[in-house]
């Protein structure tokens, strides 16, 4: 179009910028702003909705440089500077939007963890009873790792690997911090309760170590952290 209608170059650039702005704003309103719940009757905005929004926002963010290069072929030099800065602002808005979606995904997992942690003291009470002989990890550990696994599957199917790693790097840090703190405050009064605690810690650590983080701590153990330290301090040689 720039080649055939050079006089319309400025108008075309302005219109494309406005379209990009509108799409970004509307997507943010519908997903992060939960507007889709009113528009389409959704009961909630799920991690899958967030992942799909991130996917399309990331795609547009990636092609903005190509769009800019094509659209500016016939733009007069005196006008390029202002329009280029406008395009750069739009690109930055898309990047911020994508990062906010990823932050929301981390927040969702943190909130789910806190929900599970609130029920932990009640579960621990059963550990100290003589009749408790359940060989499985607790409902707390199993439910938590199931939810993490579900989030991993959703994100891995939709997002780039580097984005999935960045999200789970934050999730791993939160899990290590929150879970080790919660476990350290438990009153464990019987050998069988100690065994149950050990079983839960190792089960959760198995999940954490399988998550696609970038393992930035340079440890030989994937996603090593505070919960590993808790395991070693509390159980010593039993930790392995």
UniProtKB/TrEMBL annotation:
Instruction: State the name under which the record lists this protein.
Output: Vacuolar protein sorting-associated protein 54, chloroplastic
Single GO MF annotation: syntaxin binding
What is the organism of origin for this protein? Gossypium australe
Provide GO CC annotations from the record. cytosol; GARP complex
Enumerate the UniProt keywords alphabetically: Coiled coil, Golgi apparatus, Protein transport, Transport
InterPro entries given for it? Vps54, Vps54_C
A UniProt-annotated Pfam family: Vps54
Where is the protein found, in the record's own terms? Golgi apparatus, trans-Golgi network
Its BP terms in the Gene Ontology are: Golgi to vacuole transport; protein transport; retrograde transport, endosome to Golgi
Q: Which family does it belong to?
A: Belongs to the VPS54 family.
List, for all copies, the residue spans of the domain called Vacuolar protein sorting-associated protein 54 C-terminal: 5-112
**Where is it mostly found?**
Golgi
């Amino acid at each position: 179009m720039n080649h055939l209608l050079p006089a319309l170059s400025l108008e075309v650039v302005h219109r494309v910028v406005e379209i990009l702005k509108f799409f970004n704003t509307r997507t943010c309103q519908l997903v992060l702003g939960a507007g889709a719940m009113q528009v389409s009757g959704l009961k909630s905005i799920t991690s899958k909705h967030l992942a799909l929004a991130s996917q399309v926002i990331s795609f547009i963010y990636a092609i903005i440089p190509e769009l800019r290069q094509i659209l500016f072929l016939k733009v007069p030099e005196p006008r390029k500077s202002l329009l280029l800065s406008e395009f750069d602002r739009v690109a930055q808005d898309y990047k911020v939007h994508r990062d906010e979606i990823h932050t929301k995904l981390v927040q969702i997992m943190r909130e789910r963890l806190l929900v599970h942690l609130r029920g932990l003291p009640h579960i621990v009470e059963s550990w100290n009873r003589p009749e408790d002989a359940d060989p499985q990890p607790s409902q707390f550990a199993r439910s938590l790792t199931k939810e993490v696994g579900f989030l991993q599957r959703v994100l891995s199917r939709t997002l780039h690997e580097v984005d999935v790693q960045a999200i789970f790097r934050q999730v791993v840090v939160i899990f290590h911090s929150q879970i080790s703190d919660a476990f350290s405050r438990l009153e464990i009064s019987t050998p069988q309760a100690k065994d149950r605690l050990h079983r839960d810690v190792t089960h959760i650590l198995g999940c954490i170590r399988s998550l696609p983080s970038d393992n930035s701590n340079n440890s030989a153990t994937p996603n090593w952290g505070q919960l590993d330290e808790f395991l070693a301090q509390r159980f010593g040689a039993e930790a392995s």
